[in-house]
Specification:
There is one protein chain. This protein is mainly beta and 233 residues long. 2% of the residues lie in helices and 51% in strands. The chain contains one helix and 20 strands. Strands 1-2-3-4 form a four-stranded antiparallel sheet, with no helix packed on it. A four-stranded antiparallel sheet has the order 5-6-7-8, with no helix packed on it. A four-stranded antiparallel sheet has the order 9-10-11-12, with no helix packed on it. A hairpin with a 4-residue loop joins strand 2 and strand 3. The radius of gyration is 17 Å and the shape is globular.
Length: 233
């Protein structure tokens, strides 16, 4: 449409958009041992239980468990690609692909050492490998490895902004900006031990575990602010 976005383009402003609703803020649901990562598929939540080596599918309307599915050893990150669920197993050095509708295992794919974060760019799954200081690119349709790209020390988080990838380098106190072709576009200092990372449609935010604060970056990498947070964000 005139002034709109064609099917071959991606709108960065839509990447982070969520539609809020009046949620029940008091209910709790029992899961597996040491739940860690969480992803939403539009209807259900997928939760990695790093102490029980499985993933639970939880219906958001009532919290009922729709299935418990065995994955690799110590699953941490989880991501949804629109049809399937991907789980990074940090102590198996691999990623498990599950069918979103049934939880059936569609494949297990070797990546780098200690994978701990995932992102989906619309075509590929990107895996941050904490122990090998690199990122693995997997074709989402098949799980085939498309590339492995060196980043900073101990990558702990990764996010896609609609055009490029941003990786928190936990051991380097920086963020790496990388194109989807694997080219490093810049490295930008943030706080100490940056771990979590998110895109809000305009800016990048990092949670800095070691310095107890949050850094706000523009997409050009300029620091727009540093904000005090709680202990160990």
């Amino acid at each position: 449409p005139p002034g709109g976005v064609t099917s071959s383009q991606q709108n960065p402003l839509q990447i982070a958009t969520l539609h809020w609703y009046t949620a029940n803020l008091t209910t709790q649901f029992t899961l597996g041992t040491a739940p860690y990562g969480i992803a939403f598929d539009g209807t259900n939540l997928w939760v990695t239980n790093d102490g029980s080596n499985n993933v639970m599918k939880v219906r958001t309307s009532d919290g009922s468990i729709q299935g418990t599915f065995t994955v690799g050893t110590t699953p941490l990150a989880v991501a949804y690609d629109g049809a399937n669920v991907w789980v990074a197993n940090i102590n198996s050095n691999n990623v498990t692909k599950l069918k979103g509708s049934t939880g059936a295992v569609l494949g297990t794919f070797t990546v780098g050492t200690q994978p701990d974060a995932l992102a989906f760019d619309g075509t590929n799954i990107w895996v941050a490998n904490d122990g090998s200081n690199n990122v693995t690119e997997l074709l989402a349709s098949t799980g085939a490895t498309k590339g492995t790209f060196t980043v900073g020390t101990n990558p702990a988080g990764i996010v896609f902004d609609g055009t490029n990838l941003w990786i928190t380098d936990n051991g380097s106190a920086q963020v790496t900006k990388m194109s989807t072709s694997g080219t490093i576009l810049g490295t930008f200092p943030v706080g100490t031990e940056p771990t979590g990372i998110a895109f809000d449609g305009t800016n990048i935010w990092t949670a800095n575990f070691g310095s107890n604060n949050v850094t706000k970056l523009s997409l050009s990498g300029t620091v727009l602010g540093t904000f005090v947070a709680g202990s160990g964000p």
